[in-house]
Design a protein that fits this description.
Length: about 325
């Protein structure tokens, strides 16, 4: 397995190089520049021209790309044009918030989806199964940002149960207060994100449970007198988790990818909101760094998914 992992990592190298070139070129092809209106709304064209020349934005694209790569290998992602601080520090600050929110969302997703999928598959054709399927179909048809806006309006503004912006209350000044405030700010966006994310897991698990409970090994277990609860717990549930385990790597790496819709609608200061703001202000250094990071995480997620699937199912070995 270790040889396979090393080979897959080596294959990722040209993929990352190609990705970095595409990301850099697409960022440079964006209309506008990062300086117009950012310093002074009445900045003269000569001032903008001087700043563009000072930052090397008039150099040929290949020279700009080479300088970016050299700095990248030295651990320097550049300086943000908008925030005027190193990009690495900026991403590090936002990554913590995104990690907290994504981790909470993923935990709630599996806590909701696994029991629902098992229950629907076990009670196939009954009213409870029909209600769960209606829930998944309706949730799947509604765009994610609509769910977020409706949830924000009902629970944030109408009922006023949860905060609607930020990640920590300004009045929190101690360790426990900051932790509780962070959790309180994550509940609404995390639950809304989890309810949307449960759809695929519930549908996959329900289908696998239905297939598994009619399989030969389950019939054999019933014929031997194994209790029904034990059959579902030790036989059906374990085998039904295999397709879901295939997405495990993407779930892990997705912790740092952030949710653009969630963070934008809730003004949650994570990497998703940082990405949207960077596009608005043509902050090329932040855009290229974030997109490259997201791409690398997706490549790593593919490898992790294969590894997790091979560990869950001994019959499968990555080659």
């Amino acid at each position: 397995m270790w040889k396979t992992i090393l080979r897959r990592i080596l294959i990722m190298i040209p993929e990352i190089i190609l990705l970095s070139i595409l990301v850099f070129l697409l960022a440079k092809m964006m209309p506008g520049d990062p300086f117009t209106g950012s310093i002074n709304p009445r900045s003269s064209p000569s001032q903008i021209h001087h700043l563009m020349k000072l930052n090397g934005l008039y150099d040929p694209w290949y020279q700009q790309y080479w300088n970016w790569i050299v700095h990248l290998f030295h651990g320097n992602l550049g300086e943000s044009y908008q925030y005027h601080e190193p990009v690495a520090n900026l991403i590090g600050q936002r990554a913590e918030n995104t990690l907290w929110l994504s981790l909470f969302t993923m935990i709630m997703t599996y806590l909701i989806a696994l029991p629902m999928g098992m229950y629907a598959g076990r009670h196939e054709g009954q009213l409870s199964d029909t209600l769960i399927r209606v829930y998944t179909y309706v949730t799947y048809c509604i765009p994610f940002f609509v769910i977020l806006i409706i949830g924000l309006w009902i629970f944030g503004y109408v009922l006023n149960w949860f905060p609607t912006t930020g990640s920590v209350s300004a009045t929190a000044n101690s360790g426990w207060q900051i932790l509780l405030s962070r959790i309180y700010h994550m509940i609404l966006p995390g639950l809304l994100g989890a309810l949307f994310s449960t759809v695929n897991i519930v549908q996959y698990l329900r289908s696998e449970v239905i297939d598994a409970k009619h399989s030969d090994y389950v019939k054999t277990a019933r014929a031997k007198g194994v209790p029904e609860k034990q059959i579902y717990r030790h036989h059906i549930f374990r085998n039904s988790l295999l397709p879901i385990a295939a997405f495990g790597g993407y779930s892990i790496t997705g912790l740092l990818n952030g949710s653009i819709f969630t963070e934008s609608i809730f003004s949650y200061p994570g990497m998703g909101l940082l990405f949207i703001n960077s596009i608005s202000y043509r902050d090329y250094t932040v855009i290229t760094a974030l997109v490259l990071l997201f791409g690398i995480l997706n490549l790593v997620g593919t490898l992790l998914s294969d590894i997790i699937l091979s560990l869950v199912d001994p019959r499968i070995r990555i080659k």
